[in-house]
Amino acid sequence: MNCSNVTQVTMSSLQKFSMTVIIPVFFFGIMCNSLALWVFCCKMKKWKVTVVYMVNLIISDILILTTFPFRLYTYFYSSSLGNDLCKALVSLYLMNTYMSIFTIATISVDRYLAIRFPVKSKLWRSPGKAAGKCCMLWLFLISISTVLALKIDYIIPVCFQKVSNTPNGLFVLFAVVGFIVPLIIISFCTIQVIRTLYGKETKDANEQRSVRKAINIILSNLVVFVICFLPVHMGYIIRFVAETVEATCHTLEQIQVFSNVATLVANSNCVLDSLCYYFVAGEFWKASDLSPQIKYSHAKKRTLAAE
């Protein structure tokens, strides 16, 4: 079934809408992530385990953001980038999207171990071991991206867009391995951490307030993760099913609209990570040159959530 004409008309409107979202996300994302990277790398004397993971998350978010200008360029010149460069950019985008997801899952596991097993976890947790885990993730994702780029022979008529109606099982694999499995891990760790924090017996009002704030931070991390990444992976699965059963052009067009909007929502995670992880970390405010009042108020919110 050829729905290319319908898709092109739809994509014209989507691209105009996408520009109004991508441009502010790009600038705010670059500013927030650059600030966080500067504080962690230039102002912090000693890195803790969580800081290693957060720097890894910053790097993956910045690399995602570097693909945005090329995406905007393709809105005006759809095929002028060339197939090889386009495949490289798409691979870079997907690789760092899942690096971001896997890093968030790793942070959740690390937080769970630190709070659930505070003594035993000292044997498993160290900045060096955290860096080693991050390197393993990079090697894994770089290897997968390279294999996919070399082995799969395809032409991309519109960069960053799937315009054919041929079912691609890779997107289902992305949804299962790249989202559902991390979601299960993050949800389990979040529930266990909250149960542990609620189980703390303390009569101190400040301690109780700290526990409540820590729980709110942890819950917000889970909510943001679901909001950002659930829609786009639902779109992958829905589109695969629709293309498999040869749905009508109108149905495929609506799914295309949903998928593109969902991708924009997922891209906003590059900014939201700053609010959910870096700027709520006590280490960030202690190392920054902000006023003592601001540093004190933010450092107080933490450290059950990020330790």
Automatic annotation (TrEMBL):
It is found in: Cell membrane. InterPro entries: GPCR_Rhodpsn, GPCR_Rhodpsn_7TM, Protea_act_rcpt. It comes from the Eukaryota. It is a multi-pass membrane protein. The keyword Transmembrane applies. GO terms for cellular component: plasma membrane. Keywords: Cell membrane, Disulfide bond, G-protein coupled receptor, Glycoprotein, Membrane, Receptor, Transducer, Transmembrane, Transmembrane helix. Disulfide bonds join 86-159. The keyword Transmembrane helix applies. Gene3D superfamilies: Rhodopsin 7-helix transmembrane proteins. Its main location: membrane. It holds the Pfam family 7tm_1. SUPFAM superfamilies: Family A G protein-coupled receptor-like. Residues 32-277 form the G-protein coupled receptors family 1 profile domain. GO terms for biological process: blood coagulation; G protein-coupled receptor signaling pathway. GO terms for molecular function: G protein-coupled receptor activity; thrombin-activated receptor activity. Belongs to the G-protein coupled receptor 1 family. This is G-protein coupled receptor 35.
